[in-house]
Specification:
Residues 3-128 form the ApaG domain. By secondary structure, the protein is mainly β. It has no helices and 9 strands.
Length: 128
């Protein structure tokens, strides 16, 4: 598990390898990740959008931007947390992800970024 705290918001990430499959005559490696967003600040905050940078071992890069996470824009009071599961596909058995959430601080009427720490994606069969 990797963790990082930005402006009182703690991000924890756990990953797992889901398997391989073929699509359009090409092998894909599926990875899942579980993210917990914990509000350790004294203010009420809301996650508005996300930005991801996904890299694989073949130097393919993909960026993803969008509103909320899994169709939600969670509001977190001090001490509350939100956990969700998602995933990605890579063209290689190794890769990494990192990014940030755009958040609103409703107590101070301000906006800020919460960084998602870089985390590795690796298929266990490919490890030496």
């Amino acid at each position: 598990m990797v963790q990082q705290v930005t402006s009182g918001i703690k991000i924890s990430v756990e990953t797992n390898f889901e398997g391989t499959f073929y699509k359009n005559y090409k092998v894909h490696f599926a990875f899942g990740y579980r993210i917990t967003i914990e509000n350790q600040s004294k203010d009420e905050v809301q996650l508005n959008s996300r930005y991801w940078r996904i890299l694989d071992a073949l130097n393919h890069e993909e960026t993803i931007e969008g509103e909320g996470v899994i169709g939600r824009k969670p509001m977190l009071k001090p001490g509350e947390s939100h956990t969700y599961n998602s995933g990605c596909l890579l063209s290689s058995p190794f890769g990494a992800m990192q990014g940030y959430y755009s958040m609103a601080n409703h107590s101070k009427n301000s906006h800020f970024k919460v960084y998602i720490p870089p985390f590795k994606l690796s298929a266990p069969f490919a490890l030496n």
